[in-house]
């Protein structure tokens, strides 16, 4: 008898067909509006799950899901998982790192460029029929080439952005991280480690690429924004909640900082209404990894974890590998 798995939301049909060769699959290809109750009830009927990084798997859910043995997130982020609770319940957690590094770094740099050079402002200017003639001071932006790039969170994506900045745009690269990189990694990225206050004070462009946790909640708030240059830009491609969106909206509306590029938001898909009022912010709907090739690779990696776990008791990218060694 095949193990039973649930796929929480629509994914590519070829991945569903691959999973069906190994499992009895309940595939939700119509994007259900899960409530805590309906999600818990559905999950409780399966041995494993392929989740999208938004469905909660916490102590309350796990207490009702006695059959559950693994949840494989399609995303690299996993703040929907209470990993310690999953470990206590003997449920393996996996995510999908690496395969989205370069695509997300590309998009982070795209947001930086769009915010600094006022790309979306300029498009709205044209669409509104405001462009009547060329003038020397029309929509001046902030320089990117040769400027100072500050990266908070220097994992794989952060390092990929650093290389783009240093090698492609001749930028001076500063970074702040929970732990300092090796001398070799710093040299490869051409990046210098500094304190967070120093980074915020010196950087022309600040990019956030750190994982979300209670410790990183509101890493950027009113106090941090006050340290930034009035000509600086802020880019968040990490997770909602890392930035205090209300404080950022105020800083943008008062021109305390020049611009921002945001792909993630607190409480998404809702967006703070004051951010929608600001003309100096580029807003995108959490699409940092959104190329078909990358999203397909993410889905296959989640499938790889499910197949490896049920076939051989292993996993490709486990978050709590100690579960694998339990009797």
Please characterize this protein's 3D structure.
Helices cover 37% and strands 14% of the residues. The protein has 327 residues and is of the alpha/beta class. The protein has two domains: 4-99 and 292-325, Rossmann fold (3-Layer(aba) Sandwich); 101-283, Rossmann fold.
What are the salient characteristics of this protein?
single chain; 327 residues; alpha/beta; Rossmann fold; 2 domains; 7-stranded parallel beta sheet; 5-stranded parallel beta sheet; 37% helix; 14% strand; globular
Q: Would you identify the CATH H-level superfamily of the largest domain?
A: NAD(P)-binding Rossmann-like Domain
How would you sum up the global shape? globular
Report, as a whole number of angstroms, the end-to-end distance. Answer: 22 Å
Tally the helices: 13
Name the poorly predicted regions: none
Tally of structural domains: 2
CATH class of the largest domain: Alpha Beta
Structure, briefly:
The chain is an alpha/beta fold and 327 residues long.
